[in-house]
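cron nightly-structures :: item 1 of 1
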Amino acid sequence: MAWILLFIAGSLEIAWAIGLKYSDGFTRPLPSILTVLGMLASMGLLGLATRSLPIGTAYGVWVGIGAVGAAVLGIVLFKEPATPARLTFLFLMVVAIIGLKATGGHG
């Protein structure tokens, strides 16, 4: 169950990271409110997941999911560069997330 909570928390991290862009520096009310709610929910679920997962593993996976997801959506939604080097390092982050999941604890 902890891994499911952690995956949802990471997915919400992607959402709030993208929400930051849409909030335009917290100048647009609805995107700003949704972004802050996403942040709170994401961190709350991370906190629940750390009840049974090691903090280093949980935090690393959470950050990794958020970073990879935000980078991919940045490429898709905002036409950010998708250079071979960038895609290679995103792939390596996915490998690291899988490695942390495989070796990092139970829950």
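cron nightly-structures :: done
The two ends are 6 Å apart (CA to CA).
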